[in-house]
# Entry
Amino acid sequence: MIIVMRAGATDKEVQGVVGVIRELGNQEHVSRGKETTIIGMIGEERGIEEARFAGLPGVVQVLRVLTPFKLASRQYHPEDTIVKVGRRRIGEGTFTVMAGPCAVESQEQLLKTACEVKKGGAAVLRGGVFKPRTSPYAFQGLGIEGLRFFDKARKETGLAVVTEVMSVTEAAIVGRYADILQIGARNMQNFRLLEAVGRQEKPVLLKRGLSSTIEEFLLAAEYIIKCGNPNVLMCERGIRTFEKYTRNTLDLGAVAAIKKLSHLPVVVDPSHATGVRDYVIPMARAAIAAGADGVIIEVHPEPDKALCDGPQSLTFRQFDQMMKEIVPLAKVMGKTLVK
Ligand code: PEP
Ligand code: MN
# Structure
């Protein structure tokens, strides 16, 4: 941490800061310039709030030297993390397509969709059984009954399964049925839930919060890794802005930023990012060009009858079209499709 003092700071003010640094068990490095004095704190800074210094007499600025996240940071882990999902490897050099309905509605709907997306080249089947809905009157998902439907879909298609965990109490049961545990955007900062999936063995697909900064997103990943689970997939799913023609604003800059700041794989969700079926394919193409390691796409046998997110769900035909367009792009980006 670097503490910048006001011009003409007195010795007493400088000593005040030095005193706090020592109290915290760290060492100081005082550098007196012509205009101002800068004090470097040598030692662990992550557990210390800037506020510890900001209010002291003579202090004008407190700057952190280290990233607030460590385990998620590329600084401490330069190699790309490859997340293993059974025999599949998700991350740098590969491209993974996850697809399926927003919500699991029936065994038949799930199975039909699973067969179609498998045929098209998807590797992972998505579908929510615990649905985080804005309205308490909206379809809330089939719950545990829906989880059982995944077993048949997995057995018949060989697809891996990703589904959302909404509460700490459900983490263990979802972990029994899913190959990847999804943390939804609305729960990105449910810290006890992050810890609960951090204690599980299964990889985690962590979705970016509706209004979260990239730093907050990476700190959420840090919680999971800190609890012992290093297999985190970062999912950019659009953030809230003033724009109304799209449901959210897809932040592709976040893909590039996370790839630079972190070693974790990045997956893009153009369905929730745009909210409009016709925009999903163009944004899936853009995600690949931006360096994403995968996409997660909503697909439904009859989108107009979907119980959740029909307007953004692709038809089977559109899904096939998307695959035709993105597979060659992934190749151009030096990535092989995970099957
Ligand atoms: C989902 O993927 O099913 C979902 C609810 O998305 P998000 O949490 O990104 O809104
Ligand atoms: Mn959805």
Remarks:
- The longest strand covers residues 94-100.
- The pocket of phosphoenolpyruvate (ligand 1) is lined by residues 102, 128, 132, 164, 184-186, 207, 237, 272 (CB under 6 Å).
- The radius of gyration is 23 Å.
- The chain has a mean pLDDT of 97.
